[in-house]
Amino acid sequence: MTWDFLLGQFASQFGLWYAIVPGILIGIVVGALPGFSAQNTLIILLPLTLAVPVPTALAFMIALYCATHLAGGIPAILVKIPGTGGAAATTIDGYPMTRKGQAQQALVLCFIASVFGGLVSTLVTLGLLPWLSKAGLYLRSVEMVVVMLFGLTLIAVIAAKDLLKGLIAGLFGLLIGVIGTDHIYNTPRATFGFLELYDGVPLVPALIGLFAISEALVMIESKMIVSKEGQVRAANAHWADTVEGLRMAASRWWHIIWTSFVGLFIGIVPGAGASIAAFVAYQQSRMWSKHPELYGTGIPEGVIAPESANNGVTSGTLVPMMALGVPGGSTAAVMMIVLQYHGIVMGPRLFDTNPEIAYGVFISMAVAYIFMLFTILPLARYMSRIVLIETNYLVPVIMLMTIVAAFAGRQYQFDMALALLFGVIGYIAHKTDYHVTAILIGVILGPLFEEYLVRSLRISEGALSVLFSSPTANVLWALLVGSLAVPLVRAWLKRRADVSELNQ
Amino acid sequence: MSLNRTPGSKAPLGADLIIPTLALAFAVYFLDSISDLAWEAKANGVLIGSALVALVAVQLLRVGLQVWGGAANLGWDPVLLPRHALGKRIGMVALSALFIFAMDWLGLTLALFLAAAAALYLMGVRKRTHLFWTPFSLAAVAYVMFIVVLDARFPRGPVEILLARLF
Questions:
Q1: What pTM does this model have?
Q2: A194 contact B CB<8A
Q3: Do B150 and B118 share a structural domain?
Q4: ipTM score of complex
Q5: Do B87 and B157 have their domain in common?
Q6: Half-sphere exposure of A163 (CA within 13 A, CB side)
Q7: Mind listing the pLDDT tens digit for each residue in A153-199?
Q8: For residue B164, is pLDDT > 70?
Q9: Distance between CA atoms of B48 and A204, rounded to whole angstroms?
């Protein structure tokens, strides 16, 4: 790979602006609407992507994919409804910023962190591709079980004010996620007699119910979702707020870079995905912060970390697909189908046979992020005005339209009722501090956790000791225990310092 | 429990038991449904279910001790308050359920239009123009996006049948 080759690729990707810009615009809409996903949209647009030349199709798909990751944060910040699972962590600080009247700044932080997080991780991937592609090989089923538990524990620690409640919510979600037939014998479990649950609990109704509907039920209590001061600020939204958001992001450039690396490395692990990456990045950000107690109150770092990480995932997810022929996620799988249709075989030989595709994917991603910055940043000022709509109007629109969107995934009316049920559960969880995010991440991880656990146990003929049988897994166990212990030790030290201060 | 309390008042922790009770009931049902299956099919359920039951037991004990000690009662205030929103909240859930149920007969577009108009009225909107145009816009967007563009298998009602004949 020479500089001439790279520069030529960059130039030709910029020439595909006519595919990238529509991809970005569709991706922003799809990402911002709960219930719609990049993979479903790509499936709908499959005839289009199969009909155009490979570089054009690839540029369009990549732009759409990256834009959905970015746009998931928009409703998460404005109305506390993540457009995608990867944006769930963004609600923790993004929504409080909106309530403080800083919606525009939060949106700008989200866009800048997403774009630069995605850009940095893409460029790093481009340089380190041969080595990164091997990283995923070190994580087998045993390590994956610990990774899943690690992710869930972090969410319980971060999201819930009470660790016990967070763990109950996470395990409740994990058990809900296991509903359906088992992986080996296909016997149904806990389906309540519904055939629609044989394939497991669908994620779209769970996401919609736990976030959108439950939040709408909470919104009923107030006339507006922001304070009086926030309304005045939103009504007088000015470009100066966009500039302030840019300044906030620029002064935290290192935060954007290192949290994007968290996303990149988690993205390389097949199945781990943006949800875990965003939460791990948020937790790490809080853990290394000088003021961890401010997290959750609406601070810029709390928006930057998850957004930068969930866009760092975009390039990581494509690494196993390009290098090993194993798609790292469902969107990557759809892209792989399109490329295979055009006769391009993924795997190690791709770098010799089609280097313009192998490296072109990541160059295309970098170019898409650059285009995205100029497309979406000016919109922050106008998007932030949504908070001026009265809840009298917002609640019916959110509830009914998201219930309709719950149908979109599998096209079962049953899923709409399921979304409503999750909405009621989410409302109760919200009001009693059993964090809905922990439940949702449990539901997402449930099937994956079972798959890896059963695979590990089959290797050891049922002995649980297999979970402690590899050095990598043991390091991950230690990190998991550390993540649980650090906040407790910190709280203890703070209490001790307070007591000694009082005594003096 | 997220309500602000006056000093000396008891914390209403009854609502704190709803999620653990649901989780416990579901874990018991799950464990019962897998009792006759091969170990591969139940290993995960047993592991998660047992951990969940143990954590719920700790939470029940914690709440029980607080109630026993007089620091809390079994009130449901967090989910029921504020009272002025309770009727709207129950109404919105009932209306949403009715919308899903009625869609079989009315089709997506008409059911959504009627449900949105009723929901706006329930939320306190009284301007007639808003009660018509907001639901009309929602129904039109849903029709174009889901029926025309995506060709989703939503139940077809009189509006969809009429529009299909016209265009």
A1: 0.80
A2: no
A3: yes
A4: 0.93
A5: yes
A6: 10
A7: 776 776 656 888 988 999 999 999 999 998 888 899 999 999 999 99
A8: yes
A9: 23
